[in-house]
Automatic annotation (TrEMBL):
It comes from Zymobacter palmae. Keywords: Coiled coil, Membrane, Signal, Transmembrane, Transmembrane helix. This is SH3 domain protein. It comes from the Bacteria. The keyword Ubl conjugation does not apply. It is a single-pass membrane protein. It holds the Pfam family SH3_3.
Length: 237
């Protein structure tokens, strides 16, 4: 593993150099071999020590990948920079497998035709999709807030109606109690009136009987009195 890391470090160092720097590096490598060896050994040690810690972790390929651009339309031309994935480039001309484009800095560089596509990549739509998602989320939040307000209003209205119904029910029960009491009082009054009426009728009957008896008695006595008075009148004559 350490040898692989060492080779990787050497490859990275040399890949970043142009031809002149490469020759200068190789000429002076023997003089600095011990120092470079120590540095590369340190890189290998750090890489070897970091490998077990990252072995159990999951990583994803970055969306922001870089593509090398060259000074000419062949693989032998020098790498002069990079362009990021999804970057829009102005096409100038085409030659072989390469296309000359103008970078954001205004430089004319060459890039492989296979690294270009006629339409934007999915990553270019992410901001627009994020904006649409944010708009939809805002609408959903507004709709939910409006629904909650309406629900709260309806709940308050239902509570008010329930309170009114409870009050009306209480009033109805009180009225039923009053009606029951009034009916009981009416029955008691009717019963009392019936008794008093019977008493009055009995008194009327008693008075009528007394009057009738007095009349009969008077009718029986008066003829007898008249007959006596006639007899006395005749005797005096």
């Amino acid at each position: 593993m350490a040898s692989v890391v060492l080779f990787t470090c050497v490859f990275i160092v040399t890949a970043a150099m142009d031809n002149a720097d490469m020759i200068h590096f190789l000429e002076g490598f023997n003089l600095r071999s011990r120092r470079w060896a120590q540095g590369l050994a340190l890189c290998g040690f750090l890489g070897a020590s970091a490998t077990p810690a990252l072995a159990d972790q999951t990583r994803w390929v970055s969306d922001h990948l870089a593509t090398y651009v060259r000074s000419g339309p062949t693989d032998n031309h020098r790498i002069v920079g990079t362009v990021r994935s999804g970057q829009a480039l102005q096409v100038l001309t085409t030659q072989g497998d390469y296309v000359q484009v103008r970078s954001e800095k205004g430089d004319a560089v060459w890039i492989r035709a296979t690294d270009l596509q006629p339409q934007p990549g999915p990553a270019e739509y992410v901001p627009q999709l994020q904006k649409q998602v944010a708009d939809l989320k805002g609408r959903i939040d507004n709709a939910d807030r409006d629904f909650q307000q309406r629900t709260t209003g309806m709940r308050e209205l239902l509570d008010a109606r329930k309170t009114q119904i409870d009050e009306l029910e209480t009033t109805r029960q009180k009225l039923n109690q009053q009606l029951t009491q009034a009916q009981a009082d009416l029955r008691a009054t009717q019963s009392q009136l019936g008794s008093e009426r019977q008493q009055v009728l009995m008194r009327y009957f008693a008075y009528g009987g007394a009057v009738a008896g007095s009349g009969v008695l008077f009718g029986l006595i008066m003829p007898h009195l008249f007959s006596r008075s006639r007899k006395r009148s005749r005797q005096l004559i």
